[in-house]
Amino acid sequence: xxxxMARKYSKSxxxxxxxxxxxxxRGTLRSGRSGRKVKSRKQAIxxxxxxxxxxxxxxxxxxxxx
Length: 66
Prior knowledge:
This protein is mainly α and 66 residues long. Helices cover 45% and strands 0% of the residues.
């Protein structure tokens, strides 16, 4: 007997992250204010998740650093 947990992220939000990763590979992904080219994988994922959040998809709130 397996216990299934609810998904943290929706499937459509993972599509947004995939798109951001593709843009990073092509070299067309740029960061917010500065408009610099994104090279890091982690930053590309963060951008994809924030785009999904702004579209209102199921993504957990971002953790606040203190």
